[in-house]
Every structure is written in C-alpha cells, then in structure tokens.
Amino acid sequence: MARDVYRAEYYKKGGKAMLPIKWMPPEAYIDGVFTIKTDVWSFGVLLWEVFSLGMMPYTGCTNREVMEMVSGGGRLEKPYGCPQEIYRLMCECWNPNPEERPAFAQMFDRLQRFLQVRKKKIERCQGTPGWNEVPFD
C-alpha cells in the first residue's frame, strides 16, 4: 500500500528526510541509530498491519504521542483474530533492547513452522462439515 509521505501525519521531518515514526523504535527517533535491529522493529509493525488487515498503527495518535507511549513501554495491542504465537513474535520485535530482538533468519524459520502447522490443520479439517469455518486462532 503506497502512502503519501508529504501529506501524512505519520511521518516526521528529520533533517532533510521524512521519518516514519510509527514504524520506528526509540533508539531511531531519539538517537538517530538505524541498524538491522531497527528493521526488525519495523517488521513487527508490518506484521501487525498484516494481521490487523491493513489498519494504521497507533490510529488516532500523533507522532509525539506515539513516541511518548513507545518510549514509556507501550505497544500495539494484539489484532483481533491474530494467533498468540504471531503476536508474541511481534512483541519480541518490539523489545526495548535491540540486541534481544530476533534475527530475520529466526523469524523466517518461526513463520515457516507456523504456516506448516496451520496447513496441516486445514488439511485435516477439509472435507468435514464446516471445515472452512475453523477460526484462524
């Protein structure tokens, strides 16, 4: 989904660049530190967007409010219907200590295992009455 970075409130001008505050960890918007662990945080927000079916993170909050909330330990809530295992991964991505955030290779393996388990559950249910009404969670 493309976003107009020049008219959107969720970007903050930082020097000459527009910064996507709602996708950034505290070390990025406070200290200007950008690493692969910063990307992991942003990936956690992307996962949240996917499992919330495209909702805007921190809807109704200004950049300043998001920065204060996240710096104070606040995090996005679990989207409706999101499996606990996926939300747990999101929360790990949002660890305040960058070194304790998961590596992308770890996340890939975990997501792949999650999908394999889900696929097996769906295959077992196919053909039974109401099989497509099995809740995702």
Task: Walk me through what this model shows.
Keywords: Kinase, Receptor, Transferase. With 137 residues, the protein is mainly alpha-helical. It has a single domain (12-133), classed as Orthogonal Bundle (Transferase(Phosphotransferase), domain 1). 46% of the residues lie in helices and 4% in strands. The protein is built from 5 helices and 2 strands, in the order ββααααα. Strands 1-2 form a two-stranded antiparallel sheet. It is elongated, with a radius of gyration of 17 Å.
Q: Summary?
A:
The protein is mainly alpha-helical and 137 residues long. The protein is built from five helices and two strands, in the order E-E-H-H-H-H-H.
DSSP summary: helix tally: 5
The domain tally reads 1
Task: Give the SSE string.
Answer: EEHHHHH
Percent of residues in beta strands: under 5%
Q: In the CATH hierarchy, what is the architecture at level 2?
A: Orthogonal Bundle
Q: Rough shape?
A: elongated
- Specify the CATH homologous superfamily: Transferase(Phosphotransferase) domain 1
pLDDT < 50 runs, ≥5 residues = none
Reported for the largest beta sheet, the result is:
2 strands, antiparallel
Query: Strands across the major sheet, in which order?
Result: 1-2
Q: Portion of residues in helices?
A: 40-55%
Q: Whole-Å distance between the termini?
A: 25 Å
CATH T-level topology:
Transferase(Phosphotransferase), domain 1
Helix and strand content put the structural class at mainly alpha
Overall strand count? 2
Quick check: average pLDDT? 86
Please write the CATH class name.
Mainly Alpha
InterPro entries: Kinase-like_dom_sf (IPR011009), Prot_kinase_dom (IPR000719), RTK (IPR050122), Ser-Thr/Tyr_kinase_cat_dom (IPR001245), Tyr_kinase_cat_dom (IPR020635)
Protein name: Leukocyte tyrosine kinase receptor
Keywords: Kinase, Receptor, Transferase
Organism: Papilio machaon
